[in-house]
Amino acid sequence: MSNIPKKVQEFLEKHNLQPLEFEPGSTPTAESAGKRIGVPVGQIAKSILFKGKDNAFRLVVAAGDRRINSGQLKRATGVKHKMASAEETEAVTGFLPGGVCPFGLEATEVEILLDSSLDQYTTVYPAAGTDATGVPLQPEYLLEITGGKKVNVT
User: Fold this and answer.
1) What's 48's domain CATH number?
2) Which of 21, 36, 122, 148 is deepest in the core (most CB within 10 A)?
3) From start to end of the chain, where are the E strands?
């Protein structure tokens, strides 16, 4: 039985994507996911929710070995941001930190921003709504299916 949230499972099926699933709690960080999947940390697409001064939430998806630069995020959006709290993240996305993903967010007001750091890889692995999943796909396809916006924030 899968622990992947229903909205994510439906999204993945719609886009012909097959998630990798591991023991619960086994891949909560980019580092642990990279080791588990057997790829460099950068190939793990980490998803971090930010709250702007305009009260809008934006999900930044970036290579797992990169840090989000707040100045570049402000330049890309025109708004200063702070990282959302764990409580805000769960309330807005429905996912706990460690399992946040860009899938199944169509019904929310979350803007999805995909950092150009993902483009150095042919395959990246965002989570699938839990801290024990990864979804292999090409960065271009991730951009296409999420309706995200390409940015440079790392």
Assistant:
1) 3.90.960.10
2) 148
3) 20-21, 44-52, 57-63, 81-83, 111-115, 125-126, 133-134, 149-151
